[in-house]
Prior knowledge:
Elements: H1 17-21, H2 24-30, H3 36-54, H4 58-74
Helix pairs in contact: 2-3, 3-4
Amino acid sequence: MRFLSLGIGIGDGFTDPLNQVQGYADSAYSMGIIDTRQRDYLLQLQAKFVNTTKAGDFSSAHAYLDQIMNYLNDLGTGTPRISIYNVRNSSDSRTVS
């Protein structure tokens, strides 16, 4: 069967969770959003997410993913407040638009 495709839309960019999640701690650390202690904590959570996903324990993997995302989101309560969806955006009142 052949079909003509004129394009593709991605509604949710979370297409490769095992690889995507493994980059969160290092990315946040390299951008200066978290310190070494926070990075190490996220690395532990990331490893648990990967291990439970590979073991097929998707319920536990989802719980670890929630912990990771909540931890990163809670970092957004500081000043400036970061967005886990776009770290270039913040609510820092000192930022000039």
